[in-house]
Amino acid sequence: MNIGRQTIGETYSLIRPYIRRTPVIEVDxxxxxxxxxALSLKLEFxxxxxxxxxxxxxxxxxxxxxxxxxxxxxxGGNHGAAVAYAAMRLEKPARIFVPTVASAAKIxxxxxxxxxxxxxxxxxxxxxxxxxxxxxxSGALPVHAYEQVETLLGQGTVGLEFEEQNPQLDVVLVxxxxxxxxxxxxxxxxxxxxVIGVEPEAAPTLFMALEAGHPVDAPAGGIAADSLxxxxxxxxxFPIAQAHISRVVLVPDEAIVAAQQALWNRLRIAVEPxxxxxxxxVLSHRYAARPGERIGIVVCGANTNAVNFQ
Length: 310
Known about the structure:
Blueprint: H1 5-15, E1 24-28, E2 38-43, H2 53-63, E3 71-74, H3 78-89, E4 94-98, H4 104-112, E5 116-119, H5 124-138, E6 141-142, H6 149-165, E7 171-175, H7 180-189, E8 194-200, H8 205-212, H9 238-244, E9 247-251, H10 253-267, H11 273-283, E10 294-299
Parallel strand pairs: 2-10, 3-4, 3-6, 4-5, 7-8, 7-10, 8-9
Antiparallel strand pairs: 1-2
Helix pairs in contact: 1-6, 2-3, 2-6, 3-4, 6-7, 7-9, 10-11
């Protein structure tokens, strides 16, 4: 199935009853030390389950036939929560595998949606291997976090909404993990404006793949390891990246933490490290904004216990 504007639009019509149309807010870059630019923040962390992943999860469960054994997914946390939530809404069994680096906030969400949760291995790749074994043994439908056409179609609806809400953007910055979100968004825009990937320096997955000309194993560490550190970027999204992603910017962990703090201090937005990564590229000037540039930033996840309310 082609991943493009038509199929993403059809997908949006299918999943619209099950997802939120997340808001966009406009802020002055000068408030964050980036004068002369307009920042448009797509608050996708306000999606069901706290991240954009619900879009891809519902697309999989609605477009594919789910067997009696239900669905199975591996996840650093956000995808697992989304699949668990979609399965709960559609009354399907779900088993979710997560690695030990998954945050307590994400584990709590998965359990809260009634899924059978298995914590195994140190990294996403370990959980993925365990989930594949379970799928082979049980007959459950695997729902991949990014290596699935339906997943990219669902995540691409973020781009559809963002363009409808702000059609004047010059560039859109998107955090990269396995590439489902940025692949879907880049497929939606199709080169009509710039899409920039943002990755942690400790997990340069897409950056290394683009340099090599094909997906390669990359380091998988850093503060955002539970959401932005797969072993390698997806095969399905990679041709989209080569065609429609302008470049990838790398940000250090300290810039991600600073972006989290700035979002909280100035806007009272509490997000996880992966959710702040794209914003970090602008604040740290790793993405050098041009005067007058209209910059879209996808704030993509907020499953964190970092803020303690009194």
